[in-house]
Design goal:
21 helices, RgtA/B/C-like, 6 strands, transmembrane helix, 2 domains, single chain
């Protein structure tokens, strides 16, 4: 290829090269990524197949099971699954965006989405959002073709995609809400509310979610209650918290990067002002995008002053939001966005490779494998001993991943333990056995013992003795600490 031909190719394919550059960068980092607790927990889903699960539907678990069955079980394969699914989301986004944008704007939009931090997080970390965003995007593609291209069979495919999105995460219910909202507000397409194809689509979407509903029916709707009761209670208290609001703003600026976040705020204000003051709605295609943006992005933002909205809850809105942003963003702003993105990704890569800043949390990718090895060595010295932890799922799930034996959670001492309560374990079989209780010191400051026996342990074990803490070194530095307690003669009830 001549220099002139190469120059022409680069000029005409800058967007493609940017996207490939970011994806190659992410793929190159995968081998250096350690296991996150979320990776281990949803891997546990896949190893214990069920129609659904306590805290989420099972799609991410099924996908991890498929990848690890095909390619073998390793941290890299788990991360590679996330990377592949998210890459499909980027391709689907490109297809969806091409329905709304000119060639130039389309190129800007694909660079925008590929450069974001949220795409990197989805590529590296197993969460229900990974399949959710793929099926959310596929749903919008199908619904667009059904509505704007009058290809009615796409209502059927759209129903399937919406159902699979719900089988990924419950927030996908906003897809049906967005669809109906668009048709209600769209004068041109309102007649579709009477179409049997629309209601067929909605019925199919419900039918596809049957496994989730049936699992909940079998378990007293435990998952739905868990996801709704505590949050409803917190919202009903209506306590204003500026910290929650500014925390949400900071999270969104991080996930989207400042330029894209400000573009989101700008066009949201523009369309809201036009609708509320001038009673004027945008054209049908833009209204379609807004119908799947406003309920998730604006809706959750409205809650932020009174409730802690998690950073990933707004992610589905990014799909249509970034397409709208592509209509407004200038080349200058796109360049600034790329500068922010490159800087953040370089800092991120340095943290991954060299672990420069210690993370005072169990939500980290370092130390779990080393901990599992040390626990194995301890167990070899203690006969008839099982291992458990008490931090919802993090330590137990990670040890389960790296150890070829069962590791238990806080249900051992009578506490709710998320899906560990639904694995079918008969704790009576542990009667009389000894145990190693592992407790992470998140604010690790010294190598001292804890010095205090956790009170609940005494209700289930005859004797408890604290052992020397486990200290994990990363790059030669003491970075993580775990307290260890040797507990004898387990009694399920005392």
């Amino acid at each position: 290829m001549s220099l002139e031909t190469t120059t022409i190719f680069i000029r005409n394919n800058k967007a493609l090269l940017w996207v490939l550059g970011f994806q190659v960068f992410r793929l190159a980092l995968l081998p250096f990524m350690g296991l996150m607790p979320q990776d281990a927990y949803y891997y546990l889903y896949g190893q214990n197949l069920s129609l659904s699960y306590f805290d989420h539907p099972g799609m991410i678990g099924y996908l991890l099971r498929f990848f690890t069955d095909v390619f073998g079980t390793s941290v890299f394969v788990v991360k590679f699954a996330d990377f592949c699914i998210t890459s499909l989301t980027i391709l689907s986004f490109y297809t969806l965006a091409s329905y709304f944008l000119s060639k130039q704007k389309l190129q800007q939009a694909i660079v925008l989405v590929a450069s974001t931090i949220f795409i990197s997080i989805l590529s590296f970390n197993s969460t229900p959002d990974v399949p959710l965003l793929l099926f959310w995007t596929l749903s919008l593609i199908c619904l667009y073709k059904a509505i704007f291209e009058d290809k009615k069979w796409f209502f059927v495919l759209g129903g399937i995609a919406m159902g699979l999105a719900f089988n990924s995460k419950y927030t996908a219910i906003l897809l049906q809400f967005g669809l109906l909202s668009f048709l209600i507000f769209s004068h041109k397409y309102r007649k579709l509310l009477l179409s049997p194809w629309l209601w067929c689509s909605l019925l199919i979407s419900v039918a596809v979610t049957f496994p989730v509903w049936y699992w909940n029916y079998q378990h007293d709707f435990a998952s739905f209650v868990f996801q709704s009761s505590e949050r409803t209670s917190s919202i009903s208290e209506f306590k204003i918290s500026p910290k929650n609001f500014f925390g949400a703003v900071g999270h969104q600026m991080f996930l989207l990067l400042p330029v894209l976040f400000l573009v989101f705020i700008t066009f949201t204000y523009k369309y809201a002002k036009r609708a509320l003051l001038k009673f004027k709605l945008p054209n049908p295609k833009t209204l379609f995008l807004l119908a799947f943006f406003v309920p998730t992005f604006v809706g959750f933002f409205i809650l932020t002053p009174i409730y802690w909205v998690k950073l990933n809850w707004m992610m589905p809105s990014y799909i249509s939001g970034i397409i709208i942003a592509g209509m407004f963003i200038t080349k200058r702003l796109l360049k600034i966005q790329l500068i922010f993105s490159i800087a953040f990704h370089l800092l991120f890569s340095l943290q991954i490779l060299f672990y420069l800043v210690p993370i005072k949390s169990d939500d980290t990718w370092v130390g779990w494998k080393e901990l599992a090895l040390k626990i194995k060595n301890l167990k070899e010295k203690q006969a008839n001993t099982f291992v458990f932890s008490d931090d919802n799922y993090k330590t137990s799930a990670c040890l389960n991943f790296f150890m070829n034996e069962k590791v238990y959670a806080q249900n051992i001492i009578g506490l709710p333990a998320l899906h560990f309560d639904y694995l079918g374990d008969n704790l009576e079989t542990l009667q009389g056995q000894h145990a190693l209780f592992i407790d992470s010191d998140k604010r690790f400051k010294n190598n001292d013992k804890r010095g205090v026996i956790p009170p609940l342990l005494s209700n289930y074990f005859k004797n408890i003795r604290e052992l020397v803490p486990i200290i994990i070194k990363i790059n030669g530095k003491e970075s993580r600490k775990f307290w260890v307690f040797y507990c004898t003669d387990y009694q399920t009830k005392k």
